[in-house]
Each structure stands twice: as C-alpha cells, then as structure tokens.
Amino acid sequence: MSGKYIQPHQTQSYMKGRELGHSQQESAKVANISERSGRRIETGQHQLKAGGKRKGRTRLDPLEAVWNNELEPMLVKEPRLEPTTLYEYLIKKYPGQYQKCLRTLQRRVHHWKAIQGKPKEVMFPMVHPPGLMGLSDFTQLKNVIVTIGGQEFKHLLYHYRLAYSGWQYIQIFQGGESFISLSQGLQNALSASGGSPQQHRSDSLSAAYKNSGGKKRKQLTKFYEELCSHYHLQPTRNNLGIAHENGSIESPHGYFKRRLEQAMLLRNSFEFQSVAVYQDFIQEVIDTLNAKCSERFMEEQSYLQPLPKYRYPDYEVISTKVSVNSTIMVRCILYSVPSQLIGERLTIHLYSDSLVGYLNLDKVFTLSRLRSPNNQQRRARCIDYRHLVFSLRCKPRAFLHCQWQEDILPDEQWRFLWQQLRTEFEADTAARLVVEALYLAAVHNLQKAVADYLEQQLQLGLLTLSGLQQQFSVPATIPPSLVTKQHSLSVYDQFLPTFATRDTQSATPAVTTLSDAPASSIP
After folding, report:
1. Residue 333 lies in a domain
2. I need a labelling partner for 375 at 20 to 30 A (CA). Which of 4, 327, 496, 520 fits?
C-alpha cells in the first residue's frame, strides 16, 4: 500500500483508531493501509504530491533525439503510419539503440494521434420508425463445422431482420448468394412476419444490383426490381465496403451465431440427421431471440404493408431436352429422369434446393438439387437407380461397364454388397443379381430390406436369383369383374321439360313423357 495514494476515508479511519488507543499496526489494519503509511500520516508527510501537478519527467525520454526531428514529421505527412512501422524504421536506421522502446513508441504515437491526428468517423445513433425498414444479408458459420449424416455441411444462412422491433428470420441455403436464394428467403421472411416494410435494405449483392465497376450508379437487376415492386418495397443498399451502414443486420449476425454455437455446445453435438432437423434447431434459437422483442414486433406488425395474394416466382426457368441416356444437364450437374421422358423437351423450375420438371403443364418429377462437392470440380452426377432399373433389367450386363456404376448403387451398403457379389459370383451372374435386387427395391420401395437380405444370404452362402425373386415377390392381383346393369329410360323423364298440348276447347294440358311416347317418335 505504500506506493499508492491514501484515500481520505483511510486517513480518517486510521486516526480514529489511534484516538481510541489502538496501536499503529491495529489502526493500519482497520484502515487497510501499511504501518509505514500510518507513520507517514502521523508525521503529516503522506501524499505530498496528491492533487499537485507533475513538474517534469521522472526519467529521460528515450525518443528525445528522434521524435521531433524524424518521427513526428513522418506522422504529419502520413498519419496512417503505425507504431510498429516506425519502430522497425528506428531499428534499421539506428542499430542497437531503440530495441527496448516499442511500448514507449506505441504510447507516444497513440497520444499524438488523439491530440493532433485527423478527426475520426462518428457513429450516429439512428431512429427506425416501425414498419419502415427490413434488412437482408447472407452470413456463414466460421468457428464451427456442422455435419449432416457425418459429412461436413457447407451452407449459408440467410438473415432477415426488422429494424424497429428486431424480429428475425433465418433460413439455410446451399450454394452462393443467388437471386433464387434471396427471393425465396425474403418471401418466406415476409410471410413469417405477416407483412412487408416500406424499404428493403441489403449490401451490394450481385443478385440484386448490376456491378458496373463504379463507373456509374448501380442499377437493379430485372428480377430484383420486379420482386421489390411485387411487394411494394423500396430497395436500398449501403455503400460498397461500408459494413456498419448495414449495422442493424451485421451486428445481429455475430450475436445470433454466438447463441447458435452455444446452443450446439449445450447440445454437445454439431451433427444433425438432416437439413430439416438442422433448420428446426435454428428456429428454436430464433424463437428464443424473437420472444425478447415480441411486444415491439406486435406493435410493428400493424405498420407493415399487406402481402400480395401470390408469391413472386422464386425459381429459375430452364428449358432442356432429355437425352437418350434418360438424363438432363442443369448447371453442370447431370440428373437422371424417368425414362418415359426420353426425347421430350421439359421445362425445369430450378429452386435453391430442388428441381421440378414439367412436360407442357404437367409436373412429371421433383429432384433434390445437387451441388458440386468442391470448387475445383464443377461437374457432378445425380443418378437415381429408380429411373433406369426397368431398362437395365432387360440388359443387366450393361451394368458391368456403365460409367455410372458407382452412382447407380444407392449407398455404401449397396456398393459393399456389389464388391462381394463380384468376388463370389461370375461377372454376368453378379450383374444379374444386383440389377434384380435394385429392381425389386424400386418396385416395392424396400431398398434397405433388399440390401439386408442380400447381406444375410451372402454370409450364409445361400443367395440365388430365384430365392431373391421369391422372397420379394408380390402375388398377382386379379382385377375385380365389372357388373353392369342397364337402367330404364324412364329415369331421364325428370330431366326433360314438360310438353303441354293445348286443346282449343279445354284448358287442361296433356303431359307426354319419353317413356310413354312411341318408339318412332323418339329422335
């Protein structure tokens, strides 16, 4: 305590203890000071410099020879110079003289910039009226690795937030920041909030703004302009590279991701069974955050604009023809389709997570969208054995040399079984067995059960083609006989108008029905 200033209440406590007859040691202990300080208090020499102005430096300035002549002029000329740069300059120019001056130089430069440096940018608090602004942005988890089915799941999070209430919406997307992802995420967010604000703010997304290289004002893309017009939104954006202008969404990014990471740590796992389960988990975190601003959100909802009756198309339309291989190529990904569509030209609605195929106006299939596994390899294949197995059953030997052999087999269990079949049977027999098994799995929707049966029979050494067919055969159903009965023509009388025959001498009309009329009079 001797090196610190003694507070007035400590002095009073010490002197009071002495007046009561306590020793210096006891009084100092009560006042929480040292005995030496107590003796100084009694002699009146404590805190001689308290409140006084320092008269000069307590030691020599190690930078005195270079600060005014060299370093300060360099800072005046270029204020962006950092202390480390100036320190390296001194070390190089004056070897062995300034090695221990780094901290002194850092404090000196910091002090100089605070007094003589350029004015710093001021952050102004903003007022956000209710219902005025909604903000969108994409973000990604960087500190954690989420896995789906044991595989790393690379994805983006679309984040929407109402500026006034702080209500938030999060959706998972694979791939880049495309217009399809922006459109789908924004429309789902507007639907979840129950209305649209007057303005929609984002950064300079290429999906929303044309990149003109700064030569002229950036214009909206056609689709984004139509999307905003559909929901009566005024599109706005922050200046390029000035993230804090979008602070109402950028700052909540970090807070949400920390909460999500903490929830996963509490769960003790970053593994999820499916993307849907992962999305539900995120929604639980968002519901907890939204509960904190529920009152302001209910207030803001009354200011939101009503939603239009229909959604804006959140898909891309692509026209393609089905090849003789029963495949289509979409965004460098080869997809198999039902073989009945070979030679047909289809209209594909490309969503962020699926493809929907139409033949004229009829929807003929829905496929999960595949993403390339890495940036170096753009092309990939998405082959479904259900699309090909009926044709493959007619020529099972084609499976032996098919380029898609690995893709046709649905999972690792089937690939392992195929290797066992190749080992224990001749090539043609093995191909016939695996194709027949795929056929039965497709017909009866028993992929797992058929694979388990193959594995069991291979272990017992009892696998045969006839046994496989018998195990999963379905008894043929006889269509029921149709029994028809001819009805009487008189039942149609109730649908015919009444025919009245006027008698010039009688006012009572005569009614004639179809069943009473002679056959020759029936048209």
Report:
1. yes
2. 327
